[in-house]
Amino acid sequence: MAGEAPGWLGRLHNALSRTRATLAARVDALLAGPIDEAFFTELEETLVQADVGVPLSGAITQQLRERSRGLSSPDAVRSTLAEIIGEMLGTPGVLHLDPPPAVILILGANGSGKTTTIAKLAHRLRQEDRRVLLAAGDTFRAAAIEQLEIWGGRVGAPVIRHQAGADPAAVVFDAAQAAVARGADVLIVDTAGRLHTKVNLMEELKKVNRVVTRALPAAPVERLLVLDATTGQNGLAQAKHFHDAVGLTGLVLTKLDGTAKGGIVVAVAQTLRVPITFIGTGEGLDDLQPFHAAAFAEALLAAS
């Protein structure tokens, strides 16, 4: 809706305030001086410190060096830098939800914000008048099922569950059948972020993925990884394992408001080549927003 943009931009700016306090402030200071080789050297160091990563920081700086020739205005140089970062962030992900029932597998390590992301996503879809069903596929983590049921009750999304410790694939199979029987538009599946057995987590997730595609062969299946931005480069390495296991279709970046190194978003987008679909801008149910690369880059570098 057109009237939502200013509010969304405000939440985005607030979420990135810690990063902007260091990154944008440093860029401000650099732009106050001459745009010379020392500027580019210090800018590259600044990007590395924001967790953009060494190779990517070098690539961004080199592009700015080439594209800023002839620019004398600090604002023009800043805009060019934001444009380059926006391009590096790539095209945002889009959920494919037709024909119903569509399936959204929510993946991620424990503590990444999976359960609250499921609640926010279900809330968003319910506001679009979609019938949403939740599957409690994380049967290993203590209280995970109960937490999902509480959120499901709040947002108006029934939960398909088994007992704690049950086979996640069996839960997902029953949930897929229930989605068809109940005429659900979207089935959102919670998955394990850690197993308390000797079973390899990635093999378990592959099994869940196979069950979904066999039970609902005509359904579009989104595989969204919830990534905690505060984990930085460690989270990036973790994301590679999930991508190799199930083939991610999108990313959800959470806890941006808890880190001063929001540059990790750029590193994630470039390294994984998986589109960023949503970002979490706070704790409220409305604080899950579609990702916009240009707006994110501009907010990251907004003058203080």
List keywords for this structure.
304 residues, alpha/beta, Four Helix Bundle (Hemerythrin (Met), subunit A), Rossmann fold, eight-stranded mixed sheet, elongated, disordered N terminus
Describe this structure in words.
It is a single chain. By secondary structure, the chain is of the alpha/beta class. The chain is elongated. It contains twelve helices and eight strands. It starts with a helix and ends with a helix. Mean pLDDT is 87; it is low at 1-6. Strands 3-2-4-1-5-6-7-8 form an eight-stranded mixed β-sheet, with helices on both faces. It folds into two domains: 2-89, Four Helix Bundle (Hemerythrin (Met), subunit A), CATH 1.20.120.140; 102-290, Rossmann fold (3-Layer(aba) Sandwich). Helix 3 (37-49) runs antiparallel to helix 4 and helix 4 packs across helix 5 (74-89).
